[in-house]
Amino acid sequence: MAPSSDDLAPSSDDLVPSSDDLVPSSDDLVPSSDDLAPSSDDWELLLAIAAAVRNKSKVSTQVMEATILQVCEGRFLSHKQLQELLGRSYNTLRLGYLSKMVKMGQLELRYPNKLTHPDQAYSTKK
Fold first, then answer.
1. What is the pLDDT, as a whole number, of residue 13?
2. Where is this region: Disordered (predicted)?
């Protein structure tokens, strides 16, 4: 005998819509700056902070690291956002600065247990 749903009532009238068991809190959410648009005031401020690095082809390691720490203060920024802010390639940032700064405890990862997470981002460590 083939399975059939003819015996089932096509109604959910007896179901009560409820979200009583949902907690109205976002404490477990990680702060993100992915929603910063180029037109936002925050983004404009970050662009201004990073301008000294972005507008030069070479800066000292100290200047680059200080700028990374400043733009990442209080927010997580993805490598793409950092590339745009600082005017540097992914490899330059990752190999020259970000990996080292994470190891030294200056930056923290949004996903510390998954280094290759596609939404990985960096924030100044508190």
1. 63
2. 1-36
Distance from C-alpha of 58 to C-alpha of 64, rounded to nearest angstrom: 9
Maximum Cα–Cα distance for the chain, whole Å? 77
> Can you give the residue ranges of every domain in the chain?
41-124
Compute the half-sphere exposure of residue 56: CA atoms within 13 Å on the CB side of its CA: 10
| Residue found by looking up tokens 């949902």 in the block | 22
Tokens 């020259």, residue? 96
Q: For residue 119, is it left (φ>0), alpha (ψ between -120 and 50) or beta?
A: alpha
* SS3 of residue 89 by DSSP: coil
pLDDT at residue 14 in the model: 61
CB 34 within 8 A of CB 82: no
Cα–Cα distance measured from residue 85 to residue 87, given in angstroms and rounded to the nearest whole number = 6
pTM of the model: 0.70
8 Å CB contact between 37 and 43: yes
Cβ-in-10-Å burial (0-12, 13-18, 19+) of 5 comes to exposed
Confidence of residue 27 (pLDDT cuts 50, 70, 90): very low
Q: How many residues does the chain have?
A: 126
